[in-house]
Amino acid sequence: MLDRWTMPLIQRPLRRIAQTLLNKHITPDQVTLSAFALGITALPLLAWEQYGLALLVIVLNRLGDGIDGALARLAGRASDAGGFLDIGLDFVFYAAVVLGFALANPGQNALAAALLLFAFIGTGTSFLAFAIAAKHQSIERPHFPNKAFYYLEGLTEGTETVMALVIFCLFPEHFSILAILFSIACLTTTATRLWGGYWTLRRHESANIAAADG
């Protein structure tokens, strides 16, 4: 929901960092893999209840997630392969953070973490399934030209997810209720994406059939 406003704001500083990395001959995939390797350490840090350090690596991971795309565009190396690697590692990272909270306090957090992972499956699959169909039908990305895949909007997008992870780390004693609330928002996103994606594809298919018949 907030990505359409936050993404334009962060593109300029990301390009500046990316330009520095480009001058040092660092590749987008190297940034993607480095950011993931750093971000995945949030799992043991959270399990050990080192919430401050976990928050730091989460923020750095998300920073790297923005830099790799900016670097790819600057270098003229934006590709489906890079986009696939980026989004795939993103979902692994998100799941790892949730698992970390479950391990930190299984008795209090495990059920809420399981619900949030269930909700993440919905947002992730609806996002990627639509992206596949949209690419097949050559549907453009009107609001998110910097995304590697067609970005189907929803109540919980990248900005909201990062905010949720930050809040979880700042208030770990309330993870259970916070995770349940965010799960509800994610499930709402899943429902609206499935509905909106279905009808978008139906309308596009109908328009193509009409054009072919004409």
From TrEMBL:
Residue ranges crossing the lipid bilayer per the database entry: 35-60, 81-104, 110-136, 148-168, 174-195
GO molecular function ontology, one term from the record: phosphotransferase activity, for other substituted phosphate groups
InterPro entries for this protein: CDP-OH_P_trans, CDP-OH_PTrfase_TM_dom, CDP_ALCOHOL_P_TRANSF_CS
Enzyme Commission code(s) on record: 2.7.8.-
Keyword terms: Membrane, Transferase, Transmembrane, Transmembrane helix
UniProt-listed GO biological process terms: phospholipid biosynthetic process
Pfam families in the record: CDP-OH_P_transf
Superkingdom of this protein's organism: Bacteria
GO cellular component, one term: membrane
Keyword check for Repeat: no
Family to which the UniProt record says this protein belongs: Belongs to the CDP-alcohol phosphatidyltransferase class-I family.
UniProt name for this protein: CDP-alcohol phosphatidyltransferase family protein
